[in-house]
């Protein structure tokens, strides 16, 4: 493929980005009432994935209790800061 053809394909692929940005902003405005619940679900899923990966790995190396307790303490600290700082 020639350099100019590659350049123009790159330009064409970038032209949809502003359109998608406007559509994304519109979607956020429309879905704003659901945003806290969606973000809470995403945060819970992330915590689950991390803990699900760390605990079994720590069990193999003999640090299962340490990983479990530090995960619990980290969660409590995170929730305390969230409630305390708003």
TrEMBL record:
Primary localization: membrane
Compartment(s): Cell membrane
An annotated Gene Ontology molecular function: zinc ion transmembrane transporter activity
Keyword Lipid biosynthesis among UniProt keywords: no
Its membrane topology: Multi-pass membrane protein
Signal peptide: none
Annotated transmembrane regions: 12-31, 37-55
Name of the protein in its database record: Zinc transporter ZIP11-like
Organism for this UniProt entry: Gymnodraco acuticeps (Antarctic dragonfish)
Record lineage: Eukaryota, Metazoa, Chordata, Craniata, Vertebrata
Gene: LOC117552346
